[in-house]
Structure formats: C-alpha cells, structure tokens
Amino acid sequence: MKKNFVEELKWRGMLAQIMPGAEELLQKEMVTAYLGTDPTADSLHIGHLCGIMMLRHLQRCGHKPIILVGGATGMIGDPSGKSQERNLLDDKTLYHNQEAIKKQVSKFLDFEGTEPNKAEMVNNYDWMKNFTFLDFAREVGKHITVNYMMAKESVQQRLNGTARDGLSFTEFTYQLLQGYDFLYLYQHYNCKMQLGGNDQW
Asked: Are 35 and 95 in contact (CB under 8 A)?
C-alpha cells in the first residue's frame, strides 16, 4: 500500500505549512512537485538535506520529484535570509556546480528508473536564457504589483535590516523569476506543487 506523503512528513516533524487541498490532491493522483536550489557552490550543505529528504519521501510515496537547479536565478541571487547581495557566477562555474549537485542528489533520488515517477533535474537557465528583458517585463512583470513584491518578508528584511547596501533591482526581481519557474514547470511538466522552506511560503 502506498504511503501518505503528508502523514509521512508530519510524523517526521518536517511539515510546517501546507496549502489547502494539497493533501487531497496527493491522495487522488501522482503529483509532480519540485524543490529549487541555487548552484552557488559545487556541493550541497546540511541546510539542503531537509528539502532533499522531502523529495525522497515524495518519490517513495509514489509521486514525481523534480529538483530545479537555478542556473538563471543563481546568476541573480536570492535575497532571502541574506544580509548582502551574492556574487554573480559565470556560465562555466554554474554548469560545473550543477553537475556536482546532480551527482550528490542521485544518492537520494532515482533518476534512472523506468517508473513514471522517476526524478528529473531541470535548470531554469534553459528556459530563461533567450527571454529578453522587454519580453519578461511584458509577459511576467505585468501580472504582479510592486506593492505585493515590497510586502515580502525577504524584501522587508533587506530594506529595513542591517544591510548597508539595501536591495538591488537584480535581487528584487528574483521573486518574479521564481514565480515564472512554477508556471513553466506547470505548463511543461504538469508540476502542481513546490516544496521548500518557510522563505518560499
């Protein structure tokens, strides 16, 4: 009998928040869910373990995991929990880091199986690299208000915190790129769920 993914996370103390209706969806069908990680280094650290284990439990419960390596977002830098802007990485470094991450994650997820829920790794650089700024502003930016973006906790912490440099426009757009990732994965992979830490909520 297939395990209940939500119950599995609950008894392990790995569930903080869940969208209404998510548990019912997970019981009704095989759900594709993703977890994002930025390839800012060629090795994952202990902070990634909880997310990777969520993907492992997801797959063991019969659902399909996607790990999204943020080649595009890794060039921007996530403002969440950071006091200063990240260094921007070049293409060669990002590719090297992505391959190293896949090798590590392969110890936890089955990428090679024949089952419909075999894991996949995707890189948002693949769908963002040919997106011009004007196209992105017209097709994505028009769907969200600056007021909504400014209210985000990660943005407020950087604007009102101890950071001397504040928040660059580059980092401010990070949340738009994340939102577009979900849309792209939904359209091309039928992905209906994102896993992550509280900063993703």
From this structure: no
